[in-house]
Design a protein that fits this description.
alpha+beta, four-stranded mixed β-sheet, 5'-nucleotidase,  domain 2, 7 helices, 36% helix, globular, 250 residues
Length: 250
């Protein structure tokens, strides 16, 4: 009888010590709305206060000045802010590209949707630059064949939107086609062209597939936003206008 009791006790121990994997028995949730009714904790507020003040001071730093409001909707196929964005990125990036390759960028192109905020007339601050370009996109240069450039042009014509294009490209959309000049010259089917854009668009963002699989790809290690800030820092007063670089002549 004693042996039976001991054996039974051993079996209980073996069962009790069995190592089974844990599993979820029940999930419960509770919605906690985030609004003004939630009281802030003073100790947390005090902890982050110096960091908050530092960021606010940096963001309010004045970089430049614009005598007019800049936005992406003041033209049909071009805009004041689109022209400025493309031109200032070209101006900042071309010296970098030239110093590394001995070549020059032919023109710059970005996307309408990438302009996230306008800039009011008056002082231009660091915060304006962050609102304009909140993404961490970097500048790249793609070497494209003339055929790819034609795909790019067809994209612009079909899109009917003011995608940012630098002043080196001039496109007139006509009833039965278009006229195109790059650096005041008609397109040469035997040439390749160097186009400045962002890494996001180069990977096919906004359906810009013509940027994929280029002849060569050059990464500049230069964020779009940093190029914008650097341009504003060296420019006392921004001067921009709608110059007809992309226009409808139908």
């Amino acid at each position: 009888m004693k042996k039976i009791i001991i054996s039974f006790f051993a079996i209980i121990l073996l069962v009790a010590c069995k190592n089974e994997p844990p599993y979820i028995v029940k999930i419960e949730g509770k919605q906690l709305p985030v609004n003004e009714d939630i009281n802030s904790k003073n100790e947390i507020e005090e902890y982050i206060k110096p960091y908050k003040e530092k960021v606010e001071k940096e963001m309010s730093t004045v970089l430049s000045y614009t005598p007019i409001e800049l936005n992406r909707i003041d033209g049909e196929l071009e805009s004041s802010l689109g022209n400025l964005l493309a031109d200032m990125c070209y101006q900042r990036a071309n010296p970098v590209f030239n110093s590394r390759t001995g070549k020059n960028i032919d023109f710059a192109m970005f996307n309408y949707g990438g302009i996230r905020s306008g800039i009011s007339q008056g002082n231009i601050t660091v915060e304006n630059a962050f609102n304009l370009m909140p993404f961490e996109n970097t500048l790249v240069v793609v070497e494209l064949t003339a055929e790819k450039i034609k795909e790019l042009v067809n994209y612009l014509i079909l899109a009917k939107r003011a995608h940012p294009i630098s002043k080196q490209l001039n496109l007139a959309v006509k009833k039965n086609g278009y006229t195109l000049k790059i650096n005041s010259k008609t397109i040469d089917d035997t040439k390749t062209y160097f186009v400045l854009t962002s890494d996001y668009l180069q990977n096919g963002g906004d359906r810009m597939d013509f940027f994929k699989n280029p002849v060569n790809l050059y990464t500049l290690d230069y964020k779009v936003r940093n190029a914008i800030i650097d341009y504003f820092k060296e420019t006392d007063t921004v001067k921009v206008k709608l110059d007809g670089r992309l226009r409808n002549e139908k």
